[in-house]
Amino acid sequence: xxxxxxxxxxxxxxxxxxxxxxxxxxxxxxxxxxxxxxxxxxxxxxxxxxxxxxxxxxxxxxxxxxxxxxxxxxxxxxxxxxxxxxxxxxxxxxxxxxxxxxxxxxxxxxxxxxxxxxxxxxxxxxxxxxxxxxxxxxxxxxxxxxxxxxxxxxxxxxxxxxxxxxxxxxxxxxxxxxxxxxxxxxxxxxxxxxxxxxxxxxxxxxxxxxxxxxxxxxxxxxxxxxxxxxxxxxxxxxxxxxxxxxxxxxxxxxxxxxxxxxxxxxxxxxxxxxxxxxxxxxxxxxxxxxxxxxxxxxxxxxxxxxxxxxxxxxxxxxxxxxxxxxxxxxxxxxxxxxxxxxxxxxxxxxxxxxxxxxxxxxxxxxxxxxxxxxxxxxxxxxxxxxxxxxxxxxxxxxxxxxxxxxxxxxxxxxxxxxxxxxxxxxxxxxxxxxxxxxxxxxxxxxxxxxxxxxxxxxxxxxxxxxxxxxxxxxxxxxxxxxxxxxxxxxxxxxxxxxxxxxxxxxxxxxxxxxxxxxxxxxxxxxxxxxxxxxxxxxxxxxxxxxxxxxxxxxxxxxx
Length: 559
Fold this sequence. Notes:
By secondary structure, the protein is of the alpha+beta class. 36% of the residues lie in helices and 21% in strands. It is built from 17 helices and 21 strands. Strand 3 and strand 4 form a beta hairpin. The chain is flat.
């Protein structure tokens, strides 16, 4: 199995690993199988260094994306049963071992006194004896077990050490090497028994299982029927960039223009019978929906891609049912934004079904997602919850319980919105989103860096930019772009030695950072070290032969 990189890995290798890991996550979230849909395998130790593949015979050859395996004598019948965990459903399976081989066993539980109480790391050696038929030779066999705190992947078996003794008829000796190295022998043990071994006593204390037991009847897991329909209430509101849409009569409107209360954005199509039934139900319930303060925007997807109907068909349906709310056309950009929000909120990233609806609160933040039709009663109940923050978090849980800490939105959501606005040249909005990201996580290095770029490039506040870059480097000292940005800020203040140090650190961390090589050459020229400046500029041109500034600086050196 390939190892994850350690802390000493080269930054370029770490970036390659992170890119590959990101691609794996993307595939998993799209429904791919981690195990390649291969069946689980089980091998039986038959002695002599040989193993037999008993996957099918054992009944453990599931197609699950297997994760953890825990061994325990769950029913106290002397053999080991198995708990399995998987990434895919069913996430937990109990496999009871009902074989009747008639072999002997021994189970011991350790308790440390001079070492830690759990005695993790202790090693137990059991030597058994087997009397054969009359005249046959006495057989002596040695067994070793180590008590581990966690074994395999995300697994912890029982702290009872179990020894399968085969046809053994007695125990010659039992010794424990405790953590710390002390070796102790225990007497009074016999096959078929369970014993508590306390460090320093030398005597095994027999343990009797509880008399009460639960009769578990074998069964096949019953998975829920596959459906695309779901009602997801968010534990924390999700900020959303403004949505523009075109009404059926051709007017361009913004979602933010629908002020005064919550808004439901519905994606539907004229060819979709459940969509039409849903719109009809909302039309019939228009009065209670409006009394609740809800506005609805029904966006037809019929003009996107190879639709089975046209926007004219959608407009005819809206007129026919007398739809009393806003209706319009969904653009590809609308669908991309809504799909991106859905994917950011859900592990499984599937294309949105039709219909899908998004409930926004009065502040324009996403509060709920409905895949498939949503009943009017559910919609009214969810709108009523919008003003009660506590209720929203509790209702988002699919099971009963109490919050230890209230969920908070990830700063990455705000950062991504800021980056989108920044790329579009909407600097004021980008700055606001970056500051919200920092309010959610003061150590968001990416938000600190990009806010520093705005401070220096837009506002000309170099000192503030330097402070932001330095804060970002405390969080992520190996970010080459932040070191380069810091060098640029130092150069603006004519702090040439500091600028050189920053540029050198940037190219040490990322030898492919073209601008950092150019900036290093530039600062060396400014410091009067023209001979030293040529090499970084040549490195820059090797990476980008058309880099204009590197070409100009090299021409200056040649003059």
